[in-house]
């Protein structure tokens, strides 16, 4: 995998931006845009279909969620650090330290990030794994796991 692509898909903290619901070029946004395109105009027909498929009575709610997912607005932590969690130091720190990921920093794990405990533990596990097998191997490994 090309390093530049890897850096677009993974945040400096090690999280997978590519599968985040807010990432504009991610799998969720692309799938939502494709589904929205396929369903274009269906909102008008949904009430007729709802007679045999009662769940379609809530189609406007679904359409709103689909629109939200299709309109994902984040270009990733590296391109728009201001959209990242306010307590995340990695979004800026990685460039100050001259590394792509926290795992590559001599000071990892540091106290700069003020993550909640659950997220801190996940951040450390991710970056320990990146240290062990490398960022590209980790990226491919985690693709087989649920994002959320």
Description of the molecule:
The chain is 49% helix and 0% strand. The protein has helices at residues 3-9, 27-38, 42-49, 59-70, 90-97, 117-133, 135-142. The protein is elongated and about 60 Å long.
How are the elements arranged and paired?
Layout (H helix, E strand, L loop, with lengths): L2 H7 L17 H12 L3 H8 L9 H12 L19 H8 L19 H17 L1 H8 L6
Helix pairs in contact: 2-4, 6-7
Assembly level: single chain
Mean pLDDT across the residues is: 91
Percent in helix: 40-55%
Number of strands: 0
Shape: elongated
Work out the helix count.
7
User: Structural class, please?
Assistant: mainly alpha
CA(first)-CA(last) distance: 24 Å
Strand content: under 5%
What are the secondary-structure elements, in order, as H or E?
HHHHHHH
- Summarize the main sheet: none
Rounded Rg: 19 Å
Low-pLDDT ranges: none
């Amino acid at each position: 995998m090309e390093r530049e692509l890897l850096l677009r898909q993974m945040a400096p903290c090690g999280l997978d931006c590519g599968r985040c619901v807010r990432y504009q070029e991610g799998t969720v946004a692309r799938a939502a845009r494709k589904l929205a395109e396929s369903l274009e105009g269906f909102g008008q027909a949904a009430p007729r279909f709802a007679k045999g498929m009662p769940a379609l009575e809530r189609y406007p709610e679904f359409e709103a969620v689909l629109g939200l997912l299709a309109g994902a607005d984040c270009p990733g932590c590296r391109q728009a650090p201001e959209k990242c969690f306010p307590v995340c130091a990695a979004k800026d720190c990685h460039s100050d330290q001259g590394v792509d990921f926290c795992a590559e920093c001599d000071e990892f794990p540091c106290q700069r990030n003020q993550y909640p405990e659950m997220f801190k533990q996940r951040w450390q596990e991710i970056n320990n794994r990146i240290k062990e097998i490398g960022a590209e191997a980790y990226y491919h490994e985690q693709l087989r796991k649920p994002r959320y």
